Amino acid sequence: MHPSLLQDSVRGCPKEIPHNEKLLSLKYESLDYDNSENQLFLEEERRMSFLGFKCLEISRWVICGLIGFLTGLIACCIDIAVENLAGVKYYVVKQNIEKFTEVGGLSISLILWAVLNSAFVMLGAVIVAFFEPGAAGSGIPQIKCYLNGVKIPRVVRLKTLVVKVCGVICSVAGGLAVGKEGPMIHSGAVVAAGVSQGRSTSLKKDFKIFEYFRRDTEKRDFVSAGAAAGVSAAFGAPVGGVLFSLEEGASFWNQMLTWRIFFASMISTFTLNFFLSIYNNKPGDLSSPGLINFGRFESDVSVCLLLSSPKPCGLLGALFNILNYWLTIFRIRYVHRPCLQVMEAMLVAAVTATVSFAMIYFSNDCQPLGPDQSEDYPLQLFCADGEYNSMATAFFNTPERSVRSLFHNPPGRLFYNPLTLSLFTLTYFFLACWTYGLTVSAGVFIPSLLIGAHRTLARLVSIMFVCRSLSQVWAVPGKYAFNGSCRGIVRMTLSLTVIMVEATGNVTYGLPIMLVLLTAKIVGDYFVEGLYDIHIKLQSVPFLHLEAPATSHWLTAREVMGAPVTCFNRIEKVGTIVDVLSNTSTNHNLGKICGLILRSQLIVLLKHKVRELARSRLTQRKLQLKDFRDAYPRFPPIQSIHVSQDERECMMDLTEFMNPTPYTVPQETSLPRVFKLFRALGLRHLVVVDSENRVVGLVTRKDLARYHLGKHGLEEMQLAQT
Amino acid sequence: MHPSLLQDSVRGCPKEIPHNEKLLSLKYESLDYDNSENQLFLEEERRMSFLGFKCLEISRWVICGLIGFLTGLIACCIDIAVENLAGVKYYVVKQNIEKFTEVGGLSISLILWAVLNSAFVMLGAVIVAFFEPGAAGSGIPQIKCYLNGVKIPRVVRLKTLVVKVCGVICSVAGGLAVGKEGPMIHSGAVVAAGVSQGRSTSLKKDFKIFEYFRRDTEKRDFVSAGAAAGVSAAFGAPVGGVLFSLEEGASFWNQMLTWRIFFASMISTFTLNFFLSIYNNKPGDLSSPGLINFGRFESDVSVCLLLSSPKPCGLLGALFNILNYWLTIFRIRYVHRPCLQVMEAMLVAAVTATVSFAMIYFSNDCQPLGPDQSEDYPLQLFCADGEYNSMATAFFNTPERSVRSLFHNPPGRLFYNPLTLSLFTLTYFFLACWTYGLTVSAGVFIPSLLIGAHRTLARLVSIMFVCRSLSQVWAVPGKYAFNGSCRGIVRMTLSLTVIMVEATGNVTYGLPIMLVLLTAKIVGDYFVEGLYDIHIKLQSVPFLHLEAPATSHWLTAREVMGAPVTCFNRIEKVGTIVDVLSNTSTNHNLGKICGLILRSQLIVLLKHKVRELARSRLTQRKLQLKDFRDAYPRFPPIQSIHVSQDERECMMDLTEFMNPTPYTVPQETSLPRVFKLFRALGLRHLVVVDSENRVVGLVTRKDLARYHLGKHGLEEMQLAQT
């Protein structure tokens, strides 16, 4: 008996359980990083000449170039739009404030500011909540999951991209405590998924190019490149982009792929740089490689650098994450209607404006205006002529500009006094915490940088009496601020170090930055996971970490696998297949394994063959690989295929379409070993066989993701259909 | 019948064939990146608590820190030693030349110079040729092979390290056209292999620590870190180091491992920086992160950058490689006796000195001495007072200093005229080509940089009339020189780009550097492989590239595997095992696979059990994993184990010691699929089974490395015992 296997091993029905992070959702499918090497595939590969492979390779490079170019362009558009919108907004409000400072009635200014903010944010929230909820947030958790191999629905659609871009412009212009860097990564990924497929399903347009790349393996490679290009455009850090992609995604290292990713990143940062230079009327200057630009730090490190101790930063990060975790739970439970979500976003926008205004209003920290007029929107308020309110530098500004002004206050001079800094940190901390997770498209990188930087700076100032002998501390406060940037929140440690090093353009900072990040990570991990991981967990995504839990050698494939497995004979009755696919019957033969066939393949088969089968049994039109590619990635549901009673009796030969050499493991294999094989090859299914080579079970992503190290050793999560 | 498999599948004896690159040597064994998960191993892992795993993780970090520190220290020692020795040499020669310039008789100076050079080089060549031939060359090809998974004999021994360090000091001080960067990578790797094992077999000293790490899997991870630390110390490029390790070695990406590699790199560059700063009496300055330091380039890129066209550079690189290839063939055939090798090295040293002297003597390119006296050893010779011979800047200097002076001639002023540059390039090209492959310890990075830089600069100067309108070309000639650096020779493209970007500390150069490197690589690859690859091929090393040849879908596991396989029963007679291991008999049962056992494991088993077996059958002392670790990595040969006739009749139970769940593939699996599994998991053996789960063959590294894409499609290499 020669059965083949079906994609979904039918299990006992899990019952509906209230939402919590101890669940694993079954609604997410896996991407398949392993080619289904069936006869059709092998025939195509064998027909292809060496020249054909060369051409493919060249197309890959061209696509990566395009991805980089388009991502850079999008970053450029976002930057210009945000600058202009925010510029107009701050100009109007500033005029208004100046008008009313003299005559009294600043509450009108406050209302104006709050209304302007809310209007922007409302626009952003409406498109996200009503048109494409997948565009909410920074998109980094979603891309992490995608690169990890989880198929998140609608994450790489064109519509998501459009909503994301408009959304992020609105939220940043609306003065929320957010950054525009995170969304760039998502945008890059969408661009990559679109360009590489040579068609848009949303626009119903097929360019008939790049058809070879229409499968998970190739698409995922390009999405890695897109994400890297996004990082690169956001931070001006091409190497950081490559490392981000690798850290999150490609467990199987491929030199040529890495090269292409690097190429896309380079093109992306170059494009952004080029167009921004032109926009700024300085063509050829090329001084803005990324959306955020820390400027150049001089090489002058002292031992005192290490003073900006990362431990409290880790604690602060942990607190941020815990608060945000509770908030997210609350939102999942009570704020799930789009109207409510939009209203919450508007509320946050209004509160942000109010708090900022109050902080500026009650602050009496006046600083003299610098000779170079480096302030963007200096607010005089109640300060003397020639001075300005320093709290306004932090609050009356886009977050990027706050960061830059903070890192680059001229040596020897402190813009801020410790009180201002502490107050700002505290307020901004809660605002950012409230903001992250709103139904708007926005990132958390810049806010976390701001919080960390301010906290560190405040601390530095307060310890200046201790450290006075080290005169450099005074000379370069910005540097310390930078170093303390509170990375306890996000914890993408490796790529982040590189991003920071690249963004500052100075290798010497590497070691201190790394030590700070590492300590922050260790301290933070002790309390709670990283922000992105929390959000991934709350979505119940079956995320595979890089290694099996350390103490999981006790478990074997037999214990983790799903069984029994649905099996077909090599030549099977159409009726049986349809019934099994419709979940109305199950089919558990026990026989030697002869291959693996996917649900999607069976559906394409049924769709194309049913008619012909009815006419003459077993003399079929030759199905091409192209038929499978055309259906990718949105395969029709089984319900859409109508099979008559006659057709149900036909026999279908699966030999050509199944993968005859799926990877298998014996039942006694330990979990870490199964895990390693699964992860290294990016598998979606791993067949478990007994010593007679009979199929006894199937290991899928969910079976592996279920086990994790909790406080009390190895824990097992439950599965839920939601 | 339940057989287990033996490591060496005995094949038909290959006959001895003359040395050429179409051969694959059988003398190299593979490293095993896959743990042998036998009962002993699983028991140990299961006994270990979560805390135990934490401790292991901490030790790994400590070891990486140590590796970084020691590597940095070694780099520091090399740098200081070379500076001082070369300083003394050039001082003596300069005094001598100045003395004889007036009175005539410069030939005495020439002789002095040549003798000094030869003396240094002789010392370096003698220790390499007579004590440790494995320390010859840059060591990068060897480390590439090691990271690829090939066990190169003696490559990570302490003795190799000592000879390598002394050797490189001698060769650089001896004025050869070599760099001291390559050997650092090898040194780092040796340090890592030593530190991580917690013992030195050479010194017969066992510290009884880190015993858990005594296996290929862990050791190879640490060697990756060591190599990265070496790159980092050599170029001040920690990220480049990480990428080098990944590009060359770790096909299985592991986040924590990468973090540790990065940590080691950071520590290494920091240590070097720190100690060099102290040595230079500028503690806290930290301005020399690497052995080579290009200094800082200002951000000012113009489109004209791309003029430094990489195509001729690729051609030049190809020519270099072809010449060196012929030379190496010649050396393998005729210069294989140590005495001859030492003599050749001395000859090259003397010729280098003579040619340099001649070039300086006949050059009449005088330049005024700069106001800042930036020249290290300005030679006046026949120039007017206040001027110096500019050819001497290039030749009368260590290669590192030549590079630096070339890249950093002050803007608007050209040290060199085109003729000088062209002559230097030509001479240096042939000298470097002759030098690489000598029996001395030395690298090829700096020479290739010098050749490329000079060539580009010369070309730039000659095209200045065309490009005059772009005034920047004149302002920053060093930049163009840098960009053109002739990377056609080596072609480690990705990590090199990053190394270059890091070394210049400027992201903006990324894209042009990458484009130049890429074009050079494509042009070069069209003619001949990279220099390191050539040398690896000439050693007949079974090197696995990252992917199977594109057109190899025709081949299946059945065709590439080695068969028949030596099999044992689960409980086997000692005599049979000894006979098979001694190659005096073969054993080909056909039965269901039940596990995989290695030759080394059998040898340890025999060694420990033979005595006890003799006393009482099947009641054995419990063998520990420790016994296997103690024997690692120098397992005794089978000949050293004496088995009496009585003992031969005993039965040995292999169940506990074999890996019961080896990875298997069906016979019909295509070569690319086999290759992917093998490479992704870093396997050493892959068992091929039929549909009944019976062993039919074994795929090893050599079976996969045999196939490569030649000029006429897929080619198969022959196997040779040498």
TrEMBL record, chains A, B:
Its main location: membrane. Keywords: CBS domain, Chloride, Ion transport, Membrane, Repeat, Transmembrane, Transmembrane helix, Transport. GO terms for molecular function: chloride channel activity; chloride:proton antiporter activity. It comes from the Eukaryota. The chain crosses the membrane at residues 58-82, 103-131, 222-245, 257-279, 315-333, 345-362, 426-450, 496-518. It is found in: Membrane. Pfam families: CBS, Voltage_CLC. SMART domains: CBS. It is a multi-pass membrane protein. Coiled coil: none annotated. Residues 658-716 form the CBS domain. InterPro entries: CBS_dom, CBS_dom_sf, CIC-7, Cl-channel/antiporter, Cl-channel_core, ClC. The keyword ATP-binding does not apply. One of its GO terms (cellular component) is lysosomal membrane. Belongs to the chloride channel (TC 2.A.49) family. This is Chloride channel protein.
